[in-house]
Amino acid sequence: MSRNILLAVLALLLSPWCVAQLEPTQSGRGQAPQGQAPPRSDDSASSSSSKDRPVGIAPPANDADHPGADAADVGEFKKYDPHRAAKDAEVAEYYAKQGNHRAALWRYQDALEYMPNDPTVIYKLAETYDRLEQPQPAARHIVLYLRLAPEGEFVEAAKKLQQRLRPVILALAKTPGQKQAFALVDEGAVLLSRHEFRGAIAKFQSALEADPKNEDATFFLADAYQQNGLMDEAGATYRSYLRLSPGGVFADSARIALQHLPALRGEGIPAKPDLPTSQPSESPR
Questions:
Q1: Which of helix, strand or coil describes residue 131?
Q2: Per-residue pLDDT tens listing for the chain (285 residues)
Q3: Which of 38, 91, 96, 271 has the fewest CB atoms within 10 Å distance of its CB?
Q4: Same fold for the pair 76-172 and 173-264
Q5: Under CATH, domain 76-172 is a member of which superfamily?
Q6: For the domain bounded by 173-264, which CATH number is listed?
Q7: Radius of gyration of the CA atoms of the chain, in A
């Protein structure tokens, strides 16, 4: 009897330990630790840190509702490093040749972090997105490439890819307003490339009336404002784009533009030093 009682007591004492051993851990390999969301498939394997920069979704501090802030508040860039960018691009090329387009995408994104607005990397990103069957970012990178390098090395190939992607992108439009906006943005982009800024502005404004959340229309309206010398309107519209798509294809270009807008308005440019009005009276011996 006493033996049976002893065994029963031991079983009761050991049961919590046994249950703990059988329960799966919540933060083991392949599982996210508590309080941390699982990594997304498109940003978990990069050995560099193109996705490490936090992106805020709140209105930029220099928005109209937050007066007194400067344009630097719209975001920060990694240290400009062409050497690091070239290394990342070289690795990306290797992955692309091996057919590993997902890895190539990550490394091209890393390269662009260290050298924003680099036309070659932007074109390569467009190609890579196309190979990954992601037409929307592919088309946007093509538009950005043609904006930055209208006579660049890959212009002909870029235009062919753009023509091939156009009907695919149009098919993605779900509503009549989105389809109308797509056509208007397309027309506005042509006018913008011809430096017909007023006509382009009208097209992009009409596109936003049809589809107020159209990212392309918002960014290119800001670009058209800037090229037409309407700096205040450009700044407000670039900020609208960043609120709409803080991590979008054109986000770095918008931030760079905002950083340059004060200088383009003539603010912060040092005056020329005063020059002497006459030569010194003493001549050199």
A1: helix
A2: 555 544 444 444 444 434 333 333 333 323 333 333 333 333 333 444 433 333 333 333 434 443 433 433 455 556 788 999 999 999 999 999 999 999 999 999 999 989 988 999 999 999 999 999 999 899 989 988 988 898 999 999 999 999 999 999 889 888 999 999 999 998 998 888 788 999 999 999 999 999 999 999 999 999 999 989 999 999 999 999 999 999 888 998 899 899 888 777 765 444 434 433 333 334 443
A3: 271
A4: yes
A5: Tetratricopeptide repeat domain (1.25.40.10)
A6: 1.25.40.10
A7: 28
Instruction: Give domain limits for the chain.
Output: 76-172, 173-264
Dig out the tokens for 219 from the structure.
């960014």
For the question of whether the overall pTM of this predicted structure is more than 0.85, the answer is: no
Quote the tokens at residue 139.
């088309």
**How far is residue 193's CA from residue 183's CA, in Å, rounded to a whole number?**
16
CB contact at 8 A, 169 and 135: yes
Query: How far is 153 from 4, CA to CA, in rounded Å?
Result: 87
Q: Is the dihedral of CA 78, 147, 138, 72 positive or negative?
A: positive
Annotate 208-268 with DSSP letters as a single string: HHH-TT-HHHHHHHHHHHHHTT-HHHHHHHHHHHHHH-TTSTTHHHHHHHHHHHHHHTTTT
